[in-house]
Every structure is written in structure tokens, then in C-alpha cells.
Amino acid sequence: MQNASELTWQTLRERYLIENKPLSPLLSIRTGGPARYFLEVQDSAVALRAWQLALEKNIPVLFLGSGSNLLLADEGFPGLVIHFGSGYADIVLKENRVFAQCGVTMKALSFFAADHGLKGLTFAAGIPGSLGGALLMNAGAYGGEMSQVVEAVACVDQNGRHLTLSREEAQLSYRHSRMMDEKLLILGATLVFEPGDKAQLYEEMAAYQTMRRDKQPLTYPSVGSFFKRPPGHFAGALIEQAGLKGLTIGGAQVSEKHAGFLINIGGATTRDFLDLKMEVQRRVMERFGVLLEPEVRIIGDEGR
Fold first, then answer.
1. Domains of the chain by range and CATH?
2. What would the DSSP string read from start to end of 102-166?
3. Could you tell me the pTM of the whole model?
4. Which amino acids are annotated catalytic?
5. Rounded to 10 degrees, what is the CA torsion of 155, 142, 168, 114?
6. How many CA atoms lie within 13 A of 44 on its CB side?
7. Position 301 confidence tier, pLDDT thresholds 50, 70, 90
């Protein structure tokens, strides 16, 4: 087999890339256009070579995990989408530490930890994302967040240099990280846990998942919580108090169950969601003087 470092763009296109790949089925909100080029990662060396070649050709690159916190332009992505999914989702256990590749889902990782009596990740059992995105955004729920269990993050910078960032070096804060600032590719992480009781851990996960089902509109496509929590406020409460529950533009709607969620009630476009976002922001600012910032990543067509 040819060494990945010897691959040319042409051989990459012939052997590994899919052209004009529809992306909406891979995104939890079910909107967005196709990728000009698409790579399903099985081998990180091939992914890194593809990234390098794309950069040399000034082709934009988007790293995609489970697509649970992403809003993509209806026109699609004009460059290369590198998808880290089930083909890059290994988990390795050593005593109270777990090394996991970035494509593993948070649900699978949470259940793996609980299965082995490792405490610290029950909060993430219902997070509909993968490890890469959870690290990038320092995902959290129910008082827990990724920074509490991260020991080190394995990354690659745009020069192809491999980095191992400690928890402190990763600069994990509320929905933010160094990896986001420096546009680093996250390959995986080492997570460290405390010992816990397996039965109790499963009870905690079940309780959190019940709360999610009761409070969140899980039967509709969405990106989860759409806006960041403003200092001193809760985004959902502000939106509800502004009387915006049920506000609909096209196929996008402010959920009547939880106002912090913008949901796809059928046939929505990304433009519908962008227009709805702007209207919600305008009315909340007008009523309360608070600017709601999106928690979702918006790729292309930021528009208004």
C-alpha cells in the first residue's frame, strides 16, 4: 500500500474522496448542502495528508464529527470535509485512564466508562455529539463538563505538527478551547476518572436521560441548545419571556417545549434557521438588552 505521505491530490481523489457528498443526513438539524469533496476517515495518516494537500491548494477544510452542533449553508461546503465517525472511534482502557479517538460518540464513551466503574462522565450520556466536538466546545450538562475528566488532548496543527496538550494547555472554558482558537485538529484524548459504583453510575445516566426526554424536544431535528448562556441569565428563559415560543420561519421553529431549542419541524433550510436566529436575537435585545450569542457553529452563509 502506498505511504500516505506520498499521496498526491489526484490519487487521493481517485482512491479516497467522494465528490458532491450530501451532508444534511450527517447533521443533526438535517439542513445544509453537499461537500465538494468528502473523506471518511479510517486512517489518520490519510486524513492528515488530505488536510495538507488541501491547504497547499487553498481548498477550505471542515472537520466533521457527529454533526450535532453545526449549521451549514444551504449551498454546501465548497472544499474538503474530513469526517471522523465510526471508523475512527477506538477506546483503550488502562487502569483509571481511557484513551479515545475523536470519532467516538459521547453516549458510547459514557457507557464505556460506566461499564468499567469509572466515575465522571455520566452527565454526557445524552449529549448527541462525538468526543472531538465535545472537546472543542468543552461540552457540558447537568453541572459536568469535559474539562473535569480531560488529562491530555492529542492534536495536530496546520503545519502537521503533533501536539499533546495538558488540561491546562487546552484552555477549556465555557464552550471554548485553545483548539478552537488555533483551529487545531483533535485526534483524541486521554481521560482520567475516579472509581465509581457501576449500578449507581447507570442510575445517574438514566436520571439525566429522563430529564432530557421530559424537558427537551428530542423528537425533532435540532442542534441542541442553540444559544450560549448569557451572563446572569438563561437563554431559554429570556426567549420564553419575550413570548417567542412557537415562533416559526419556514420549517424552523422556536420549540414550544424548550425555548432554547430551534427545531426543524419539516422541510427547513439553513436560511430559515439563520432568519429565525436573527429574529430571536432582535426581540430579546429589544426586550431585555441582552445579546444572545449562538452556541452552534455556523459554517458559510452567515448572512444576516
1. 4-83 (3.30.43.10), 88-200 (3.30.465.10), 217-299 (3.90.78.10)
2. TTSBHHHHHHHHHHTTEES-GGGTT--SBHHHHHHHT-EETTEEGGGTEEEEEEE-TTS-EEEEE
3. 0.91
4. 175, 225, 295
5. -60
6. 15
7. low
